[in-house]
Design a protein that fits this description.
The chain has 134 residues and is of the alpha/beta class. The protein is built from 5 helices and 5 strands; from the N terminus they run E-H-E-H-E-H-E-H-E-H. It has one domain: Rossmann fold (3-Layer(aba) Sandwich). The longest helix has 13 residues.
């Protein structure tokens, strides 16, 4: 199924591992999506304001503002839309998963993530472009 994205989405990839972020962004672009990058919490919030992504692939262990705080901020500011937020993280304890869901994440994936599962989540993501003013 790889490379057969049904819908094209604006995807924000947020990870302080620059090489990992670039690789993941390149992969989702190969699947037919538009990708943007950020490498820390403040950068993620700025990119979310600028690009209005429909999906955010968000690491939790970020410098300055962690992924939990980024997700909470996004959920408290409806003017930024209601992106699908997927944790893509090295944090793998059950408490990390619970905290992510409490913070506003929709899904939780541990690195290295299952690419088939990721593609499936992206293919099921709603197209919210019409609902969010540019």
């Amino acid at each position: 199924m790889w490379g057969t994205a049904r819908k094209s989405h604006r995807i924000l990839v947020v990870d302080d591992n620059v090489d990992g972020a670039i690789s993941l962004a390149s992969l989702v672009q190969l699947w037919g999506h538009e990708a943007f990058l950020a490498h820390d919490g403040p950068g993620a919030l700025a990119a979310a304001r600028q690009h209005r992504p429909e999906v955010i692939l968000l690491d939790i262990g970020l410098p300055k503002i962690n992924g939990y705080e980024v997700a909470q901020y996004l959920r408290c500011h409806p003017e930024l839309g209601r992106p699908l937020i997927i944790a893509v993280t090295g944090y793998s304890q059950p408490r990390d998963h619970c905290r992510a869901l409490e913070s506003g994440f929709d899904h939780f994936m541990v690195k290295p993530c299952d690419l088939s599962q990721l593609e499936s989540l992206l293919s099921e993501a709603p197209d919210v472009r019409e609902a969010v003013p540019a």
